[in-house]
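Notes, p. 3: input format for complexes.
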Amino acid sequence: MSTVLAPEPLSRTGVSKIETKPVTLTINGEKKEINIAPWTSLLDALREYCNLTGTKKGCDHGQCGACTVLVEGKRVNSCLTLAVMHDDHAITTIEGIADAETLHPLQQAFIDHDAFQCGYCTPGQICSAVGLISEGRAKTTADIQELMSGNICRCGAYPHIVDAISDVMGIDNQNQKSAAALSPEPAKSI
Ligand code: FES
Ligand code: FES
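Output follows (190 residues plus FE2/S2 (inorganic) cluster):
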């Protein structure tokens, strides 16, 4: 289904007119036609023009990962890319992660492992984790920690986030924690 969304007024000041460009974004399987200034980020297009506010704006500078979405299955910081560059790309936001009424396994695991507090970073964490799993590079919890390091959580829910992702990936996080606890501390130099 195609939805035509109302364009933003060309000018707020009435002094100069912003030249907008029609863009068709395919988001969560639905086409949305919007008229936007060419410099509009994908993040702003999603939130301000498509009313998809699940994707969060944290830093707006590519540093926190709150705005992570999937483009053609790959995770990207939507604040760092322009919407006009994704005219023919499949975009998945947190609103499109679940299968109808059934939560995505990562969404369920985040609930089961109490992997969020305020929840602000959670949409980006989950989208990023979906991308991480499809990349196929993470084999251990240490890999998960490294490959999720672009997603900041101000509440510090990291241990439970890693538990949730490990659970979905079938990585035995508990054994790895136990092994780490049993390994001797490195000798301190004096
Ligand atoms: S809002 Fe995009 S990385 Fe922080
Ligand atoms: S749960 Fe609050 S910022 Fe991560």
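The radius of gyration is 20 Å.
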